[in-house]
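Thread: quick sanity check before group meeting

JM: Hey all, I'm pulling together slides for Thursday and realized we never actually wrote out the predicted structure for the chain we discussed last week. Dropping the sequence here so it's in one place. If anyone has concerns about the input, flag it before I start.
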Amino acid sequence: MRTRFQIAGLAIAAALVLSTVSFAQIHPPSTTGNRSPAAQKAAANAPKPAYDPHDVSGVWWGRGNDILMGNPVPALTPAGEKMLALNKPYVGPHAVSYVDANDPITGCDPIGYPRIAYTNNRSFEFVQTPLKILQIFEWTHGMREIWMDGRKIPDDVDPRWYGYAVGHWDGSTLVVESAGYNDKTWLDRFGNPHSEDMKMEERFEHPDAMTLSLTTTLTDPKIYAKPWVSAKAQPYKLQLPKGITELEEVYCVPSEENAFNKTVRDAAGEYDPNAK
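JM (edit): ok, ran it. Output follows.
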């Protein structure tokens, strides 16, 4: 029979593993943001690209915020409060134990947008074509299309993990409007929800060859009493050499997640504080 000391030891060990693995899953380190000294030297010596205000191609890296867009959450509607109550994060003001949490990404669901742009501290790549810009994310290699051919967002678009996005240029700023999101994702790791009616406007300011600054306005009247607007711009820096810097292949693999749950998460759930 387990003693209190054995049980406590198991709980502490499990907690350490849980905190390490879960942090790595939700905030994995950036491969382009934390490079070796040799890679950093090579990047510093790489020739700076010529500045074309309408060319955002390349790999971009920026450090995310724990709170979406740096601003407090707007007041929730009654429908929003009901939706939030169903979400069980293991961090933040509504936190539950890791065993009881239901963050969709722990089951390898797509992280969704805009969460992936603000909280995962990994790079993304813009690939430009004459008709659209592809935004490819390093973590899980998620991708969204930003159509640049003048089309509008369809009225009957099927809900998607990363939405339906169209863009245009306003001077040196890439303006992206999006809608058509499914409601299966969270906006952040604190469990803040959104509905399928969510719409966004993003403004990627491109003041020089090396810099992007993202501001976002999120509108979802079914869930929030007012729009959620960036408190300040989210900065991204171009990774050099441009056209050569690679994204790492990073996927959330269900088989590994299941093994983790079986050997660590489920075992931690067996802890009984009243055991003798």
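AS: nice. The beta strands are 58-61, 124-128, 132-137, 143-147, 164-170, 173-179, 199-208, 211-219, 228-229, 234-238. The helical segments are 4-26, 37-45, 78-86, 115-119, 254-268.
JM: adding both to the slides.
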